[in-house]
Write a structure and sequence with these properties.
Blueprint (H helix, E strand, L loop, with lengths): L17 E4 L5 H10 L8 E4 L5 E2 L5 E2 L6 E9 L4 H17 L4 E3 L3 E4 L2 E11 L2 E9 L13 H5 L5 H15 L5 H6 L8 E6 L2 E10 L5 E5 L4 E4 L4 E6 L11
Parallel strand pairs: 1-2
Antiparallel strand pairs: 2-5, 3-4, 5-9, 6-7, 7-8, 8-9, 10-11, 10-14, 11-12, 12-13
Length: 250
């Protein structure tokens, strides 16, 4: 169980609004219940030592291991670029607290050495945003080769309490950060790489050339045209291991 006394609050996320559970189906669902019952408000943080029915983007399952993962949801006001602000906050936390160079795999995954270490889910309830974060911290074995943890990367145990405390502090600062997209671009994983984007209208391939001011991915397609997609428009984005077809304009 996490040591509550080792977690410090902030101006927005005061300790009085921290809710800890030994076991929950989903921290996201619990946050929604609080809002529906007129209890939850901006600044509430719901933490589960173990989560067994969590979900990620596109309804993907995200479960956590007792005493090893860091799974939490928090409530905040709806403001622009919440996904980008959250992803940047995770990357900066991992760098400052754990000494890891993390990258943002657009739109909502955080990777270290090309392996996923953290996922982010943003949902809304009434006029509030619920941000769910699932991070692999002290796992030594993971079911997928494409996943990693802080401990696997550093070789030593990490403090989930310290990571959570620092993340909330950094996130609060990033809420009012004016040059947020410039900072996000410094951590992008796929920039200048060839990617494949799955949309409702089919698959589009191209070179990831930039990230727009609204958080949209901008690519140069196989035909040489420029296209952009917001996070909600792209079902899946992944890096291609080979260049585009011969003759593609660059």
């Amino acid at each position: 169980m996490m040591d509550i006394d080792r977690i410090y609050g902030s101006r927005l996320f005061t300790k009085e609004k921290f809710l800890f559970y030994k076991r929950l189906p989903s921290t996201q669902d619990r946050a929604k219940e609080l809002i529906k019952n007129s209890v939850g408000e901006a600044g509430y943080v719901i933490v589960a030592d173990e989560q067994y029915r969590g979900r990620g983007r596109l309804r993907r399952v995200w479960s956590s291991r007792k005493g090893e993962s860091l799974t939490f949801s928090f409530i905040t006001e709806k403001i622009p670029l919440l996904s980008m602000r959250t992803a940047l906050s995770v990357a900066e936390t991992l760098e400052e607290e754990c000494g890891l160079r993390a990258e943002i795999e657009w739109p909502n995954d955080i990777v270290v050495n090309s392996r996923k270490i953290c996922g982010i889910l943003i949902e809304t309830e009434r006029n509030l945003a619920i941000i769910g974060v699932g991070m692999n911290v002290n796992e030594t074995v993971l079911p997928l080769e494409s996943a990693t943890s802080v401990r696997i990367e550093t070789g030593i145990p990490a403090s989930r309490e310290a990571i959570l405390s620092l993340f909330l502090s950094i996130f609060e600062s990033n809420l009012t950060r004016e040059n947020i997209m410039d900072c996000v671009r410094e951590y992008l994983s796929f920039i200048d790489r060839y990617v494949e984007i799955q949309t409702e209208n089919g698959v589009i391939r191209g070179e990831f050339i930039n990230l727009g001011e609204d958080g949209e991915i901008i690519i140069r397609t196989e035909s040489g045209s420029i296209a952009s997609f917001l996070p909600g428009e792209a079902k899946r984005v992944h890096k291609l291991t080979a260049p585009l077809l011969a003759g593609t304009d660059r």
